[in-house]
Amino acid sequence: MKLYIKYMVSLRCKMMVKEELKKLGLKYVFVELGVADVMEDITTEQREKLKRDLLSLGLELLDDKKAILIERIKNVITEMIHYSDELPQINYSDFISEKLNLDYTYLSNIFSEVKGITIQHFIIINKIEKVKELIIYDELNLTEIADKLHYSSVAHLSHQFKKITGLTPSFFKSLKDKRRNTLENL
Predict the structure, then answer these.
(1) Is 14 in contact with 8 (CB distance < 8 Å)?
(2) What's the domain range around 153?
(3) Looking at the domain assignment, is residue 107 inside a domain?
């Protein structure tokens, strides 16, 4: 039986869900971002207790089919951008459709209806978050970051970065450097 969980975004979240399932005596096949596959059927009491316990951890057990589908889309995108070493070589729409085994137009329409933004815009927001993370780590230059995240050029990356954050990547980097200098002078 699959359980869908909102706000699962890290390895720590997966560990917390595993722990809560163990407390209820439920054996799981796997626990991934946004989903836990439990071996046996779950009673109403177990479901309610799990719902309460997850909520106290900042997670939410989902019941609504649209909400579950939206979380699955978000999790595919999050995993693709933040937890994969390499972005897929195929179109993101094909990748998402393939992963969820559903028509992309259908997914796109539901996502836009519920979230108020397109899947493409959600991908861009996540890519910019990844760019910010890579700038802060300071291991790659902008050309390498643009290449890693499949931007056609540094100019394209910079344009999207400014559109989303209001800052240029170099100004964002300088803020990080200024903060480091200030902390070193304490």
Answers:
(1) yes
(2) 121-179
(3) no
Q: In angstroms, how far is CA 134 from the centroid of its own chain?
A: 16
CA 66 to chain centre: 18
CATH of the domain at 173: 1.10.10.60
Evaluate whether residue 17 is within a structural domain: yes
pTM given for the model: 0.75
Q: Tens of pLDDT along 88-147?
A: 778 899 999 999 999 999 999 999 999 999 999 999 999 999 999 999 988 899 999 999
Residue 94 counted as domain residue: no
Residue 72 lies in a domain: no
Tokens representing residue 60 in the block: 């939410």
